[in-house]
Amino acid sequence: MTDAKSFPLNAWYAAAWSHEIEHRLEARTICDKDVVLFRRSDGQVSALEDACWHRLLPLSMGRLQGDEVVCGYHGLVFNAAGRCTYMPAQKTINPSACVRAYPALEKHRLVWIWPGDPALADPAKVPDFHWNDGTEWVGEGGTFYNLQCDYRLVIDNLMDLTHETYVHAGSIGDEAITSSPFDVTHTDTTATVTRWMIGIEPPPFWAKQLGRPGHVDRWQIIYFQAPSIVVGDVGVALTGTGAPQGDRSQGVNGAFLAAITPASEKSCHYFWNFVRTFRTDDEQLTREINKAHVNDGRGVYDQDHVVLESQQKAIDKNPRLPFYNLNIDAGALWARRMIDRMLEREQGNSAHVPSEAAE
Amino acid sequence: MTDAKSFPLNAWYAAAWSHEIEHRLEARTICDKDVVLFRRSDGQVSALEDACWHRLLPLSMGRLQGDEVVCGYHGLVFNAAGRCTYMPAQKTINPSACVRAYPALEKHRLVWIWPGDPALADPAKVPDFHWNDGTEWVGEGGTFYNLQCDYRLVIDNLMDLTHETYVHAGSIGDEAITSSPFDVTHTDTTATVTRWMIGIEPPPFWAKQLGRPGHVDRWQIIYFQAPSIVVGDVGVALTGTGAPQGDRSQGVNGAFLAAITPASEKSCHYFWNFVRTFRTDDEQLTREINKAHVNDGRGVYDQDHVVLESQQKAIDKNPRLPFYNLNIDAGALWARRMIDRMLEREQGNSAHVPSEAAE
Amino acid sequence: MTDAKSFPLNAWYAAAWSHEIEHRLEARTICDKDVVLFRRSDGQVSALEDACWHRLLPLSMGRLQGDEVVCGYHGLVFNAAGRCTYMPAQKTINPSACVRAYPALEKHRLVWIWPGDPALADPAKVPDFHWNDGTEWVGEGGTFYNLQCDYRLVIDNLMDLTHETYVHAGSIGDEAITSSPFDVTHTDTTATVTRWMIGIEPPPFWAKQLGRPGHVDRWQIIYFQAPSIVVGDVGVALTGTGAPQGDRSQGVNGAFLAAITPASEKSCHYFWNFVRTFRTDDEQLTREINKAHVNDGRGVYDQDHVVLESQQKAIDKNPRLPFYNLNIDAGALWARRMIDRMLEREQGNSAHVPSEAAE
Question: Angle between the B151-159 and B300-317 helix axes, to the nearest 10 degrees?
């Protein structure tokens, strides 16, 4: 067995929604590492290795005592830096006794942790996820915890929206997506896929949001930030009102937000949101849009869920690699190249687990 | 890991009952290969590899469009020969884009597929299973899909019916089976076990079928066709009426039919039927006999089911190999020798997975 | 894969409570060996390998015929010594046909079996478990069959009772356990941890048993017999009445009894009892104490159960070995050293699986 992983460790990953982390112990598995999260008295978030130094019981099975964690087996106490501050029945504390502390911070309504080398954990490197701040853009998302697939399959899914035509027919899918040309650009750490569909019948979801009859121009501008953030600037405007030229005032504009965090090589946590700049005070609409995405198996993301987990099972079973690619995969390929480059830098060439994509 | 398998690939295997395959996508796993089956507009059956060329999603999650299969993820289309005829958002189709098409045909009320080299798939080699045709012989069978055992354990079971005395006491089991002599003959691809029990009390099932008092002569003539068909010519006739000499007119004659298809090394699909030449118009009897075999855990085959899966678990756990054999295993040993020979021819000696049976 | 195990085979292990073994077939897995137990007509207990010589079906799926076992598949018969006495359809019995017979006997209300070399199975070596005889000491215990952890984790748990403070707060846990000094002694095959807590408030369970107000002296004298018996002499007496000096007449005295039998490397059967010398006629109290230990997830041992299985999962996931140890682990370390020595003698140094404990 090699230690090579399919995910870089030196990166900020979403670990929880801010509102999920209170003054109690909350367990997560991030990049194959068991982590216990809690909010300290000063409001900051801490993240410790979730295994007692002594006999490995998950610390999340213990309890908080002030801002320290008490193991639920023999009562060892660890402070927020992971250092042991109490051992039962002995006065001298082994100075090497500690659990790992992971850099953790909050930004854009999420808690982010850095599973790699703490010396490299620069807060300025937290991905730009400002759409999620809840000010200009409004929405209510959720999380698929432990989605049973490689996090890169979710990125593939989001970077090519032609799948909407087949997976989401009847809501956001439309033949126009497949037939419209698209453009792919990239920087060293981002890739952008831009697709404009001009003068089309709006698909049901967007017709409803726009609330006005007529043909529309539809846009999907998908933006990837390595290693695992995808943001889609999406919407429709009445045809001829200037949206392709920059004037979206006669349209409706939304954004889907995805922070995809590897849990293991074959599972991930998918933090999602769908935010909008129209009817931002309409809480009923907020709930409706949430339900359009996740709704007891009938939402758009529920449909993706089934496809992604089925795809992972097929990959596990099928020795045929690498994937074959189509033109539509251009965006996903750039994303995977960036991930591969991060892995090479981090693990060296020899330890490199190649992305399953190849042309 | 070696590629050696315990089942030959160059053989026709039952994949479904004819009535199960309609104009819709139906998934099966045959010899470790995921296959999607469907009936075309011309009534013929097609079998394709059940994994899209592009990103491996099972094609059985998509839909039929005429006689072509549309992938449920990105809409690639494959014709009945497995060739890709449509790719989303591109005009040029990669000429190498295809999924494997397996030779498939219908005969004797079953759909058969050939998971090996298509060039060798001679329709004339479909096993003789004419008892199942529903003309001279009448009955209604079923399938144990994904029985959790090596298909060869089912063959062992059927090739030696002394197990009836112990597993099926109270219905078809009888001490006479164990105490009566038997004879084993074979050709290059078949083996036959013949056992006559003369002047015995008929066991409950057969007493009921015969419907007349008195001692009987009971026969069990079990016929194996490599690699995985077993047919049993079974019945009873009043003693002294000439059945051993060839006149069965004073008796009742049935046949059990078994087409056992490897799903994986340790699971199989067991297509069974029990047909008869007596009271062939009696549909009530047909249902009764079906129920005597499979009846919510209480039927004869349900009893075998438990034994076979328990045996597989014991084999998995128990490092003691090979099996020890008794005289009663002579028929099963010939069957396994034939399978071994097919494997040797197909895989070469070095790749050969030896049958677990040895004397 | 090596054959080295974490448990010695040349030892008597509890396999069942005496009352569980009647004149019928009862399956157990002991030290990775499947065993079928039954009581013979003469009242003695027999233990055979639970896999037929012929085709490995568990004999426990068959039936008893007098004091012989009939296989449920083909009817082979094995006597209590494991020798085959009948084979179907053949007169000559293969003289090598037999299943393994394990030395088995009853003592101290338990059935013990010796999974190792029968020549070494000296009945005098059955562990001293006289507290369980039901004469001087009274109580009613139970078994956690297939507890999902290495049997040595249970020994660790019992050899250090500071865990009571954290795992069993509110019943038998108390800060005094952690703060009181303790003493560890040992012989070649036993280890003893002695802890006296002088002049303390009794914890709830003991206050109730004592039934008198006032401070108490509490004792916990834990006694290990290699490889897997732990007995705890525990109780409280009113402070100043001489208990530390040997006069326990003003107190209440109980004993917890643990026979921990490896089922596999990562599972075990935990036979437990809690016996007492006070109010021995009070059956209501007997039931109450039983319920205090196991009560649908709320008993003291239920709490240990969760901790032990969680710890095993953490060990499986966490590559960090060996364990780190504290002063409180001194008793457990002696226990593990004795087990290690037994393993070395039995398996030789090269095959030795080291205990996971190290200082």
Answer: 120
